[in-house]
Amino acid sequence: MAAPCRKIINQFVKRSLKCFEPRVIPCRWSNTVRNHTVEKHRHSPLSSTRELVNQQDSPSDVMVPREFRFVHPDFLPYPVWNRRDRVREKLEREDMLKRRAVIDIPEFYVGSIMAVTLADKNAPGKQNRFVGICIDRAGHGLYHYFVLRNAIDGQGVEIKYDMYNPLLLKIEVLKLEKRLDPQLYYLRDAPLEYSTFRLDMEPVSVLKGAQVPLNAIKVKMNPRPWCRRWERHNLKGVLPLDDYITEKMKKQKQHPQIEKPWEKHDLMLKARTSIDDREVDQIMTEVYKRKEKIQKEKFQKRGQEGKREVKKAQEVKK
Amino acid sequence: MAAFCIRSMLLRNLTCQNLISADPTLTSRVLVCHQQVRGRRRTCKPPSWFSKRRVSIKQDITPENAKFIKDVIIETYKKPESPLKDGPWSRGTWTPRTQRTGVLAIKLGMLPQWTKDGKKFITTLLQVLDNHVINYTPPDEFAKSMGWKPYWGSKYGSVVVGALSCEPHLFSKSYNNLFAKAGVPPKRKLTRFLVTPDAAIQPGTPLNVMHFRIGDYVDCSAKTIGHGFQGVMKRWGMKGGPATHGCTKAHRRMGSMGGGRDKAGVWKGKRMPGHMGMDWRIVKGLKIWRIDTKYNVLYVTGYSVPGPTHGYVRVYDTVLKHKREHLIENGNPPPMPTFYPEDGKEPIPEEYLDDELFNFNNESISYATEK
């Protein structure tokens, strides 16, 4: 046997033995407990504050509609792995569901036209109603927010609302539709006619169960200057921008460091910025169950109240 | 010999060390060398008195035997509700000078909450997981022990609190012996609190989130996030050099130092590159807004509790005078020395909320009816 071959084998054996050595925790983590260790201690039989696994929480064969996760993107937690915690996410979801039981938060998407009523101390009627197109929707859990845009007196106005703010009195969807892009901030650099909506607009009714209509309108942008370099954003809902940009800008746009063609193949990036499908299913099943339960309770309450009212009316008649 | 020891300790830059003679008859003689040192001990090596805790597990145990060991461990620590061996100690009364023990919590992260005025603010969630009192040392004994500092005098005793129970066969014998008195399984993490003698607490007492009450103020001390060896721009926020215009190898350097007529020379404490983070920091006077008794979680003001998610945090009553005033004025002292189940007669509710905090079960806030 040749000597170099033996050397390679020795190295291989050494490396494979390394995984059996006791793990050395680096100093940087010495004051921190790993996520799986915390979970172990929460369920450990030695623990005095043992958390029992609730059978109701475990996923069962409840069929959750496929659209449910796209209707409720706010229930997805923050995806950065070292900032996640199961109990915190659970408590957060509980708060969200409590709030959703009180106020009706309808289904809406970026591109839908909405009206929001907000309690305001300084407004004349102590409340303020704003109508506009939803240009963005982001944030995880209780941090979830959406942005409405409208042109009022020839001036573009944008308002950012926290979805779980208790000052929100009513959320209405006047026209339920989707657009081609996930964010519509480019309306800032488009003519105001694209973001002008009447404040007394009447709601457009949509058939229940029908697919959400897609508004494939292509916006004609204003000439530069713009608030962002829109030519680099690969916008779908915009007419071609070639007339507005210079040759140099076109060249720059195709530069690999700006175009970043590898990003769509980057699995690690995807793992870092999104949540695993199986986990999403688990969360959505839990939320779906809870929502159904809340709705049932609501119907029962309404039924009881209705019965009481009928009884009262009968007594009055007598 | 003692002089040599002290000199060697000075060389090793230890801040404080007590020497106890090996002869047990002379234990009352304590040699104290206390010297204040700027900054902290920046080394990865454990101190000389540190003994090894963990024991390597033998791999040649069959799965049946491993399961048998686990069952035995669980059975030995399965006890009636009270783990206190001798009769319960008498409970002291709270005075404005009292310093109670704290708890060792784990940081879970941040969540926004709203007040009843509709103001949004951030809270930090701290979970008190499986905490027990491991040891109490009265002041006179504590003064003879290691780690005591002369300026504490004889005011304080010490309470050792542990969090997260583990299986004993993972640890060395000497470490396991620490828990014999309390009768609890060995803990993953220990910490020490200074307490006044009226807040003496019996070893083996479980501590939970009910140790604190809504509206009380606490201090949190923890180690900050470690960043390793960092340059001057990240560590101290200096500006660095220019990116272009003929700048060579000075983009992230600090500027000149040591100039100046009278003040010339590099003074002690000059901000330079070095180890960043992993320092003990205390945040004082954080209000408790909300308590979840089901999961043992505290909601505490702000996002400035040091450390990463799942870092250990020491939580104890605040030392700020103006935030302890309401305890004296209203005459509602905190539970002494901690909350016992018999204190709350009714079944404890799952959640406590501050009066100013918005309850998500309530209707939306509206000002229309105020007229």
From TrEMBL, chain A:
<keyword id="KW-0687">Ribonucleoprotein</keyword>
<dbReference type="InterPro" id="IPR008991">
    <property type="entry name" value="Translation_prot_SH3-like_sf"/>
</dbReference>
<comment type="similarity">
    <text>Belongs to the bacterial ribosomal protein bL19 family.</text>
</comment>
<dbReference type="GO" id="GO:1990904">
    <property type="term" value="C:ribonucleoprotein complex"/>
</dbReference>
<keyword id="KW-0809">Transit peptide</keyword>
<dbReference type="GO" id="GO:0005739">
    <property type="term" value="C:mitochondrion"/>
</dbReference>
<keyword id="KW-0496">Mitochondrion</keyword>
<feature type="region of interest" description="Disordered">
    <location>
        <begin position="297"/>
        <end position="318"/>
    </location>
</feature>
<protein>
    <recommendedName>
        <fullName>Large ribosomal subunit protein bL19m</fullName>
    </recommendedName>
</protein>
<dbReference type="InterPro" id="IPR001857">
    <property type="entry name" value="Ribosomal_bL19"/>
</dbReference>
<keyword id="KW-0689">Ribosomal protein</keyword>
<dbReference type="Pfam" id="PF01245">
    <property type="entry name" value="Ribosomal_L19"/>
</dbReference>
<dbReference type="GO" id="GO:0005840">
    <property type="term" value="C:ribosome"/>
</dbReference>
<dbReference type="InterPro" id="IPR038657">
    <property type="entry name" value="Ribosomal_bL19_sf"/>
</dbReference>
TrEMBL record, chain B:
<dbReference type="InterPro" id="IPR019927">
    <property type="entry name" value="Ribosomal_uL3_bac/org-type"/>
</dbReference>
<keyword id="KW-0687">Ribonucleoprotein</keyword>
<dbReference type="GO" id="GO:0005739">
    <property type="term" value="C:mitochondrion"/>
</dbReference>
<feature type="region of interest" description="Disordered">
    <location>
        <begin position="244"/>
        <end position="268"/>
    </location>
</feature>
<dbReference type="InterPro" id="IPR000597">
    <property type="entry name" value="Ribosomal_uL3"/>
</dbReference>
<dbReference type="Pfam" id="PF00297">
    <property type="entry name" value="Ribosomal_L3"/>
</dbReference>
<dbReference type="InterPro" id="IPR009000">
    <property type="entry name" value="Transl_B-barrel_sf"/>
</dbReference>
<dbReference type="InterPro" id="IPR019926">
    <property type="entry name" value="Ribosomal_uL3_CS"/>
</dbReference>
<protein>
    <recommendedName>
        <fullName>Large ribosomal subunit protein uL3m</fullName>
    </recommendedName>
</protein>
<comment type="similarity">
    <text>Belongs to the universal ribosomal protein uL3 family.</text>
</comment>
<keyword id="KW-0689">Ribosomal protein</keyword>
<keyword id="KW-0809">Transit peptide</keyword>
<dbReference type="GO" id="GO:0005840">
    <property type="term" value="C:ribosome"/>
</dbReference>
<dbReference type="GO" id="GO:1990904">
    <property type="term" value="C:ribonucleoprotein complex"/>
</dbReference>
<keyword id="KW-0496">Mitochondrion</keyword>
